[in-house]
Amino acid sequence: MASFEESLKQLEAIVGKLERGDLPLEESVRLFEEGVKLSNACKTDLEAAEGKVQILLKQKDGSRKPEPFPPPSDRE
Fold it and tell me: What is the pTM of this model?
């Protein structure tokens, strides 16, 4: 199974190919399907990492509650 970074790199390459718009329909659909699978895999990895971070932030006495991450536009 590919790492998060590898999956993301593959997804970026697929998006680049699709954005050019010069592929035949069948190839575009195949790449889109592959991109959806990679996107789902990345999402699963990110959710798992977020869960680990939330566990690490929680104090033994339960006094600290995890806070949601701000949207990407707020972090830039």
Answer: 0.71
